[in-house]
Amino acid sequence: MQKLAIDSSTELGRILVNAVQPADLPPHRRAYQLFRVEAPEITPGKTRSISHLCTTDVCFAALQTLSEGGESRMHSHAAMDGFWMVLKGRAVFLSPGGEAFRLGPMEGIMIPRGVPYSFHQEGEEQLNILQIEMLHARARRNTYTSYGEACSEEHIARAQAQVDFYDARHRTVPVDGPAAS
C-alpha cells in the first residue's frame, strides 16, 4: 500500500478533500479493480487511517482503522448512502438524538443519504471498519453538513492532520467482451 498526502493534486485527494463530489469521481470504466490491504500504520499522534480500496463513478470503498480517540463529528451526506461493517474491534454509531448503536465484528449499519450520524472506536482494541459509500446516480452535488460547533477550514485541516491515508489499489484490468444487457 502506498501512503498518500491528501490534497487536491491527486484523484483520491480531490475525492476525500471535497467530500465525494460527483464531479471528482472517475467516469464509468469497464475494468476490474484489484486491491490488497496490509495492516495500516497509524502514525504516533494520529487517531485513524483510511485505506482506499476502490472507486467507480457511483461508489467509494475504504477500510478505516481507528485507535483510541478516533471519532467523527455528527454529519450527513445529502447524496450518499453509507454501508459500514466492523471487521475487528468495536464501534459506536450515534444518532442526533443520542441513541447509540454498538457494533462488534461482522455487524454493520446502513445510513441513508441525508441522515445525520457520528461514530467512534470503543474499547481498547483497534477498530477496523469497512466503509462503502454509494452516490445517488442522479446527484450533481453531495453536500456535507456538519452539526454542532461550526466547521471551519481550520477545523477540517486539523481533522485531516489526524489521519494517515493509504491507497490499497494495485491493479486495474480492463474487461474484455460484450457489456451485460
Topology diagram in text:
Elements: E1 2-4, H1 11-17, E2 31-35, E3 48-55, E4 59-66, E5 75-77, E6 80-88, E7 90-94, E8 100-103, E9 108-111, E10 118-122, E11 127-135, E12 144-146, H2 153-161, E13 163-167, E14 169-174
Q: How would you characterize this protein structure?
A:
This protein is mainly β and 181 residues long. The protein has two helices and 14 strands; from the N terminus they run βαβββββββββββαββ. It has one domain (2-174): Jelly Rolls (Sandwich). Helices cover 9% and strands 43% of the residues. The protein has a seven-stranded mixed sheet with strand order 1-13-3-4-11-6-9. A three-stranded antiparallel sheet has the order 8-7-10, with no helix packed on it. Strands 2-14 form a two-stranded antiparallel ribbon. The longest helix has 9 residues, at 153-161. The chain is globular. The mean pLDDT is 81.
User: How many strand segments?
Assistant: 14
- Compute the average pLDDT: 81
What share of residues is helical? under 10%
Could you say which overall geometry the principal axes of the C-alpha atoms support? globular
Just give the CATH class: Mainly Beta
Distance between the termini: 35 Å
Task: Write the H/E string, N to C.
Answer: EHEEEEEEEEEEEHEE
Poorly predicted tracts of residues = none
Keywords:
181 residues; mainly beta; Jelly Rolls; seven-stranded mixed sheet; 9% helix
Provide a short characterization of the protein structure:
It is built from 2 helices and 14 strands, in the order βαβββββββββββαββ.
